[in-house]
Amino acid sequence: MITLLSDFGTEAHFVGAMKGVIAGIAPRTPVVDITHEVPPFEIATAAFLLDQSWRYFPAGTIHVAIVDPGVGSQRRPVLIASQGHYFIGPDNGLFSLILQDAKAVARVLDKPKYWLPNQSNTFHGRDVFSPAAAHLSKGVKPSQLGKRINDPWRNMLFEPVRQSRRTYSGAVLFTDRYGNLITNFKIDNFPTLRNRPFELQAGLERIELFAGTYSAIPPGELAVIPASSGYYEIAMREASAAKRLGLANGSPVELTTS
Amino acid sequence: MITLLSDFGTEAHFVGAMKGVIAGIAPRTPVVDITHEVPPFEIATAAFLLDQSWRYFPAGTIHVAIVDPGVGSQRRPVLIASQGHYFIGPDNGLFSLILQDAKAVARVLDKPKYWLPNQSNTFHGRDVFSPAAAHLSKGVKPSQLGKRINDPWRNMLFEPVRQSRRTYSGAVLFTDRYGNLITNFKIDNFPTLRNRPFELQAGLERIELFAGTYSAIPPGELAVIPASSGYYEIAMREASAAKRLGLANGSPVELTTS
Amino acid sequence: MITLLSDFGTEAHFVGAMKGVIAGIAPRTPVVDITHEVPPFEIATAAFLLDQSWRYFPAGTIHVAIVDPGVGSQRRPVLIASQGHYFIGPDNGLFSLILQDAKAVARVLDKPKYWLPNQSNTFHGRDVFSPAAAHLSKGVKPSQLGKRINDPWRNMLFEPVRQSRRTYSGAVLFTDRYGNLITNFKIDNFPTLRNRPFELQAGLERIELFAGTYSAIPPGELAVIPASSGYYEIAMREASAAKRLGLANGSPVELTTS
């Protein structure tokens, strides 16, 4: 099985061409879209969405993830093996969260025989990444696709930074369609929010309310809820916290615990 | 086969995570998207779109439909069997049109062994509905997934209301991408519109023109046409009736027959 | 395998109903979406996107393409066979680029036994094109679906027009999500742009810069690049040329070579 995640959008031919290339090489391999609506060039957003998706797929799944402003330049195409899954895409930080696994093995895709002939300089999704994924799904070995590298790009910041004993500066990782703001504060790392007072400074508001579900939030109020992503989320009940606060992907937030 | 319909959008990881869960449990079950672009929290719109889609699929298809503002609250997760098809989602009115079938059988999903371990309070699509659907597709019996209930939520209003001998108040069920406004006046219930004068009050306009096809509408005019949905639709030729009239899903309209 | 391309959008039931119809007739035929986001009624855009996609699929693929403002009128439903692929949709110019193949064979779909019973006048995608494609995928012969015709609509203009010895008027074929403007100047027909001076007049700007990749464009500059589509594209580095120039699908551009 191959999954696809990109910032290509669905209004153009990009995704269709990739699926055609895969079907031409590996017609029996199922292809599943994660999303193609990553905002253009937002590598960190793609890294977050990939991290939220891949682990639910069965072992052996090949995840093609592409946000690739450096296509055609010297940035390397890579294949990463981690925890029984495979990841293919540009070496630009997109796989930072995958590479937190110390046992992950990275390779550079350097064997043009597994690409389309006559690659373009602008669409490696079609010409390099899709054919490599299709060949891998048919039994070509990772070692045949490229040689190991020890320096894949992994230094993208996703963790809150401690500013003082009880204060941490964080950020919005993702804004969903409802306007919920997923922060980078992990539930497991800040377990006291459910039981003890806290303040979350977000935009011009200071949020002190905790709720267990969306429908438990009083209408019109902002609350922090422990979300399905494993991170705390700023939410309203059937309304957009993002619009209310004027925040978006990457906006800073600040947590003070007690 | 499993179909998916939701208000999750396609820009986040929600749909990808659901497909991963299904693939992990039932890797051979095909999954088809109906739509994930239901406007957030519009349960009635989802009910209409489900009703327009499910009957074209083969018997035995499992339809997962989710617009779920009450996720994590006391609202029940349900499985409904009707006319050889299965329907899975929240018990909040979304299945009102399905439940017009007197022979429909409803069950509450109350067997956590068929869910993901450690369910969240905010994403039952991933943690409850998708795994239940996947298990059902693999041969688990409905009776194993939960016990029968007699009181599923079915009281959502979809029918026009008669106001006087010849006047009916109705509503816009759905606005499509072209700006066509699908009303809740069923062609079969109002068969005279094709042959006899009528007036349809919509926004600030009174429409008296009937057309059989979009291309038969004079440019710039509003007309009522008998649409593929089985309902009358307010349309223009290659232009948006919704923009012209300023109407949207749920807007009132009033029909006077002769 | 069946591919789908349309202007139906993904927010309605249209695509889901088509997939249900196909699954009901040919449950084992895989269905792949190219795009459903063609701007409403833009036949030329659909023709371009189809041309960019179909050739990457394996031989025998059936491509259903629908932008159909004349649905229900006298416009014919057609099936075209070309280069081992099949194309199904309305006879309104959408297949102009496919029909440049002199060996292409066109047929009118005139056998209602291969359609849904009780066709609507507004949704032939569901009622005519999808069932015909599904039957074709199951082994029904093209000659059983309809009789040959010699006059399919093929006269849509896609080529630049020479205005003087060194000047050509062209147009924007497609604007992608990044704001890159794909022109109708084919790289193969204008090979000198890489090596010799040129001017491309686009909106209020005169572009004289050539770049081989997006990341080679100086920030803030407009450049012409040889794109993966086979056409020259007007692009910026991680910014939208379409917004900068105020251009969109169909906008005129003018090339002067040296």
The rounded distance between the terminal residues' Cα atoms of chain A is 46 Å
Alpha carbon gyration radius of chain A: 20 Å
What global shape of chain A is seen? Answer: elongated
The percentage helix of chain A is 10-25%
User: Structural class of the secondary structure composition of chain A?
Assistant: alpha+beta
**Largest sheet geometry of chain A:** 8 strands, antiparallel
| Assembly status | homotrimer
Q: Which protein chains are joined by the largest interface, and how many residues does each one contribute?
A: A-B, 39 and 31 residues
Number of helices of chain A: 5
Number of strands of chain A: 15
Overall pLDDT confidence of chain A: 96
Poorly predicted regions of chain A are none
Question: What amount of the residues of chain A lies in strands?
Answer: 25-35%
Structural summary, described in words:
The structure is a homotrimer of 258-residue chains. Chain A is α+β, with helices and mostly antiparallel strands and 258 residues long. The first copy, chain A, has helices spanning 14-25, 43-53, 124-137, 142-145, 241-245; strands at residues 2-6, 31-35, 62-66, 77-82, 85-90, 105-108, 148-149, 161-162, 167-175, 181-186, 199-202, 205-207, 223-226, 231-235, 252-256. Chain A has five helices and 15 strands. The first copy, chain A, is elongated.
